[in-house]
Amino acid sequence: MSNNEEIIAHLNECLKHEWTGVAQYSQASFIVEGVWREVYADTFLENAEESFNHAKLVGNKIVALGGVPAATRNEIKQTRDLQEILQNSLEFESKAVEMYNKALELAEGNRALVVFLENILEEEQEGVDEFTKLLRNSQATSSSSIDSKTA
Ligand SMILES: [Fe+2]
To answer: Which residues, including other chains, have CB under 8 Å from residue 127's CB and lie 6 or more apart?
Structure first.
């Protein structure tokens, strides 16, 4: 496999991961219920949109490199438990960071492609940071989470 083919193949794995994100985050947005729906339905929808934006960028780049974009996705994780949704979201974003880091290794020497991938990687890392903070005290679904620190 030439380096170009290797990059295209790996970008297609990234693309499949983004399509998985579109479905997984949309589903989370649809099914989150109770009072926290007010907060998290929009949050998850925004994440679905971010995945779609990345899918657009990566799909167009694959074609520019001479490849054919994947039109499939991996299985999604779904649950009604908000804490689990947040945990799945952190796993999803961490996997994305890992995948774009690998893509960056393959892109070494191609400065424009490196910058393109770095911009996406930065947003994936922001996702990791946000979900890490949301999960930090494991109180995302509890209204008493700040009480002990406000005295
Ligand atoms: Fe993404």
So the answer is: 47, 50, 89, 92, 93, 96
Expressed in angstroms and rounded, the spacing between residue 16 Cα and the centre of ligand 1 is 10
What token pair was written down for 54?
């990345």
Question: Which token pair is 124?
Answer: 């994936």
The predicted-structure confidence for 45-89, as pLDDT tens digits, reads as follows 999 999 999 999 999 999 999 999 999 999 999 999 999 999 999
Query: Would you say 127 and 93 are in contact if contact means Cβ atoms under 8 Å apart?
Result: yes
Please write the tens of the pLDDT for every residue from 129-146: 999 999 997 655 554 444
Residues of the domain holding 15: 3-141
DSSP-derived secondary structure letter, 74: P
Ligand 1 center–CA 17 separation, angstroms: 8
Instruction: Look up the CATH number of the domain holding residue 14.
Output: 1.20.1260.10
Angle among Cα 46, 47, 48 to the nearest 5 degrees reads: 90
**Considering its fold, how many domains does the chain have in total?**
1
Residue 71 and residue 12 in contact, taking contact as beta carbons nearer than 8 Å? no
Residues lining ion ligand 1 (Cβ < 5 A) are 51, 54, 96
